[in-house]
Amino acid sequence: MEDVIKIEGKHKLKGTVRIGGSKNATVALIPAAILANGPVTICDVPDISDVKSLSVLLDFLGVAVDIRSSDTIVIDPQDMVNRPLTHDAVNKLRASYYFMGALLGKYGHVEILMPGGCYLGPRPIDLHLKGFEALGAEVKYEHGSYVLDAKELVGTEIFLDIASVGATINIMMAAVYAKGRTTIENAAKEPEIIDVATLLNKMGANIRGAGTNVIIIDGVEKLSGCFHEIIPDRIEAATYIVMAAAAAEDVVVENIIPHHLEALLSKLKEIGVEMEVDVDSVRVKGTSKLIGTDIKTLPYPGFATDIQQPLTALLTQAQGHSMVTETIYIERFKHCYELNKMGANINVMQASSFIEGPTPLSGTEVCATDLRCGACLVIAGLLADGVTTIHDIYHIERGYEHIIEKLQAIGANIWKETVA
Ligand SMILES: CC(=O)N[C@H]1[C@@H](OP(=O)(O)OP(=O)(O)OC[C@H]2O[C@@H](n3ccc(=O)[nH]c3=O)[C@H](O)[C@@H]2O)O[C@H](CO)[C@@H](O)[C@@H]1O
Ligand SMILES: C=C(OP(=O)(O)O)C(=O)O
């Protein structure tokens, strides 16, 4: 038996969608909370399976997690035990790697399985490990687990060969208790990094420069509990804005930070999507004609790799050629083969997809090979003639809270079914 999502396309969307807290911030904030010596309250936590997997891991470590309301949790690590993280839940998401930085920072020792997450081509963690080594940790890989040990963590200068989001956050967490000053150069600048630094600073850490490419962390001796509200999910927001561009009569996407979406909004304008951008919302009315364009994914503030897959569904409806080039994950194109099953005309060569449009799409059986491929297929399903059936929806559930309910509320004909 398997749960699938079914969508009957061609229904116009009308109404308001509220965006939840950022997945990529949340999955770092939760492990970061264990660095405190008191309860940390986090609100606007998205209801996604990645959060459930992290809660299982917290429970495994003896960390108390109190669910205060539908989106507020209190994490109390005061009775925590630093057990080897050999639980299956580690493999369910990428961000389990943040327990490396957090546990190393707090205890000077961590044992953890390889992280999971979407397969987007190779996703090494060598930069995280080099950072931990530079801080004084010994890194071993034994019996399928990473084992990290440090008698003492001492601040140092770390230059990242690639501005990696995960390595930047992980090193920041490992360094909060280190002796002296750690400087991360060529740090990633994604908004989620600022959010994690904000939480750590509220706990009592001394981190400056998050959001720029040089982050300075002065080690402290104690971190306490605090209250934190997560930033809105810019990738969920982008997905609904693209959905609206594909199928809206009149849709408002609210609880967003438009500044985090500038690369997408300027591309959408270029291809002909009419939008009204307000302080914390974007309104999209029906779009008559779309024009093909070229996109290159880049680290923030460039065009996010997580958005190229959803946008590709829209580009199948644009007049002429479009080209999407990946510079972050050069194999992140499995969604193109699924779109082709629905009638798209996309060729993938090396690190680019070449889209010829417009092509009518028709509903068929497709597979969400990864999270954003799933989002892309939901958009394609809204555009398609007939019913689209999406398999492997556990990927979608990793990152989109209540996607069926949110879309039903604005007029989409989408539902979940259990099939043999
Ligand atoms: C949980 C989370 O926040 N996931 C996001 C995070 O993933 P993640 O943090 O894993 O992505 P990174 O920013 O680390 O990856 C960027 C590039 O650096 C490479 N790299 C990274 C680390 C390393 O040690 N060695 C190395 O070579 C990667 O293979 C990739 O080509 O940022 C990606 C890039 O914006 C997003 O697509 C993911 O949604
Ligand atoms: C790739 C993604 O997530 P993760 O890094 O958690 O696999 C994503 O959010 O698009």
Automatic annotation (TrEMBL):
Listed pathway(s): Cell wall biogenesis; peptidoglycan biosynthesis
Pfam families named in the record: EPSP_synthase
EC number per UniProt: 2.5.1.7
Residues the entry annotates as binding UDP-N-acetyl-alpha-D-glucosamine: R94, R123, P124, I125, D126, L127, D306, I328
Keywords on record: Cell cycle, Cell division, Cell shape, Cell wall biogenesis/degradation, Cytoplasm, Peptidoglycan synthesis, Pyruvate, Transferase
Keyword Metal-binding belongs to the record: no
Active-site annotation: C118
PTM sites of type 2-(S-cysteinyl)pyruvic acid O-phosphothioketal: C118
Domain of life of the native organism: Bacteria
Protein's name in the database: UDP-N-acetylglucosamine 1-carboxyvinyltransferase
Species of origin: Amedibacillus dolichus
